[in-house]
Amino acid sequence: MSGVVYSTHHLHPEAAELLAKTDLRIASALDAETLTRESRDADVIIVRAPLPPEIFSGQHHIRAAIRHGAGLDMIPVEAATKAGVLVANVPAVNARSVAEHVIFASLALLRRFRMMDRDLRRQGWLAGREHANHTHELAGRTIGIIGMGAVGRQLAAIAHHGFGLTVVGNSRTNRHLPDFVLAASVDNLVAESDIVVLACPLTPETTGLMSRQRLASMKEGAILVNVSRGAVLDEAALVDALRAGRLLGAALDVFATQPLSPDHPLFTFDNVLITPHMAGITEESMIRMGTGAANEALRVLAGHLPVNLRNPGVVGHYRQRFPEE
Length: 325
Known about the structure:
The longest helix is centred in the last third of the chain and has 19 residues, at 283-301. The radius of gyration is 22 Å and the shape is elongated. The strands form two sheets. It has a seven-stranded parallel β-sheet, sandwiched between helices. Strands 2-1-3-4-5 form a five-stranded parallel β-sheet. Helix 4 (95-110) crosses helix 7 (150-163). The two termini are 15 Å apart. It has 325 residues and is of the alpha/beta class. The protein is 35% helix and 14% strand.
């Protein structure tokens, strides 16, 4: 199938194989000027890095921007819609990977894994083993999940059925939650939970949602896990809360500025688990995300609309741009 597919990153080999009959191109760099210049003659963009709004201005042939994953914050949807460009994503395919990461991170903090491993290697067996006297089990605790989409539901099921946790959830409506999830307001969830998980999309409403006041209202000895977006959390306030010693720890996969600066104060805490925005990346999820995005690209090149079209109001403008379809 003819057509130019421009991807910000290399795709999983199974996804690249699906696009073998297209002209698949990979971005040479991720700065705004390069992405804008190199994508001018592309039919479809597969997105794993933030796109500048100007990519959709001026003369271009872009039909669709397809997110390699679920979150749309990397695509300037308003600019794309104004330009008559379809926006699509591949929802839910990395939900299991993210949910498992939350459990892994929570266990690592409760069992003081970073400190134990460090001291075992540097000071010996007994120094590492001493940490066991200050560790905790996951069972019997309450986990509060802010954002009950695909990730939140996967996490809730694992936490409840796999570990016997009490699950408290919050979504925009708090309707249609699984029957084992207790609905709560954000404030009540934060105050009641032993583990607070940010798993909501980044929107104007969720920006700064985990504020200094809400961090202060967390239970003493609680854990905060952020697999949402960095801007959902007040990072400076979290640093202050950690310095005050009220929290057992935090696990952060996303940050307000990425990559995180090596001299960021978050790196100074033994009870903070930092990962480089990889909670949703596993071999399995990369196959699902890559092949999902590739199949959506093929649909667009064949003249069809994406299955997971996220700006349906653009269709009229899009059909004007490509009347032959």
